[in-house]
């Protein structure tokens, strides 16, 4: 390949990368743009997620609804749109769809509302945790060895993990207690742990954390973790 052609390709690639990065805003930049009167904030999560807590003045357009595209087409193209979801996947996809429809001023929240909350920014509709800190401590005191699973209803890996945990519960019911906690209903509680990918599994032995895992764990590996825990 000729040097000049390679140089042109490098410039084009770099500009594309920079363009993509400029559309993804960190929470601080996202917050600063919200003061602009021409800004429209789009929440593309589900109604259930929205009701648990959302950024103030956000408009809900459910990414998974049948009329999602038709709702996007009704938006005013002269406005600037700030888009967010839970962690970023749906907002990035929405941004690309809007670009294909001719919309120009588009930004998405890098890391979604999860990152927004982690950075300490407020949101409306936030409810108190269903399980208080005291109640959580009572759970830990209820049995010598406890496995806590933080799950969300929309997480496919959580559904897979649920099946494995149900099997484990049958085989180890005399040795370990498994407690499942809805993370969407206990946001503050979840924020106190380091793991961020659901499901989050936390193993306690005599009220002390033995290990903390996240994401789907295959049955054999999970059995290995449990066996080491009960020794």
TrEMBL record:
Domain spans labelled Rhodanese: 35-125
Protein name, per record: Thioredoxin
Provenance organism: Apibacter adventoris
SMART domains assigned: RHOD (SM00450)
Sequence ranges assigned to domain Thioredoxin in this UniProt record: 95-231
């Amino acid at each position: 390949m000729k040097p000049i052609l390679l140089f042109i390709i490098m410039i084009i690639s770099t500009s594309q990368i920079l363009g993509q990065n400029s559309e993804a805003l960190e929470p601080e930049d996202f917050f600063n743009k919200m003061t602009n009167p021409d800004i429209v904030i789009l929440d593309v999560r589900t109604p259930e997620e929205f009701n648990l807590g959302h950024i103030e003045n956000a408009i809900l357009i459910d990414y998974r609804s049948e009329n999602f595209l038709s709702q996007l087409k009704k938006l005013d193209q002269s406005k600037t749109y700030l888009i967010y979801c839970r962690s970023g996947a749906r907002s990035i996809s929405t941004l690309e769809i809007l670009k294909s429809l001719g919309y120009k001023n588009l930004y998405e929240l890098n890391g979604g509302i999860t990152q927004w909350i982690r950075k300490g920014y407020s949101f409306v509709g936030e409810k108190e945790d269903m399980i208080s800190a005291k109640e959580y401590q009572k759970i830990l005191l209820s049995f010598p060895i406890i496995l806590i699973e933080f799950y969300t209803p929309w997480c496919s890996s959580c559904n897979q993990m649920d099946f494995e945990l149900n099997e484990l519960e049958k085989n180890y019911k005399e040795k370990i207690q498994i407690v499942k906690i809805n993370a969407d209903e206990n946001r503050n509680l979840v924020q106190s742990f380091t793991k961020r990918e659901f499901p989050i599994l936390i193993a306690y032995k005599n009220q002390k954390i033995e290990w903390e895992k996240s994401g789907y764990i295959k049955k054999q590996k999970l059995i290995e973790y449990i066996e080491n825990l009960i020794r």
